[in-house]
Amino acid sequence: MSEPFEDVARWPISRYFREVVAAQPDGRVLLMFGWLNVVAGCLLALWLLVASPSSNLGGVHVVLLLGLPLVGFVWFLKDMPSPQLTAFEHIMREPWQRNISVVLQLFVGLAPWAAIAKTILR
Question: Is the pTM value of this prediction over 0.90?
Answer without folding.
Answer: no
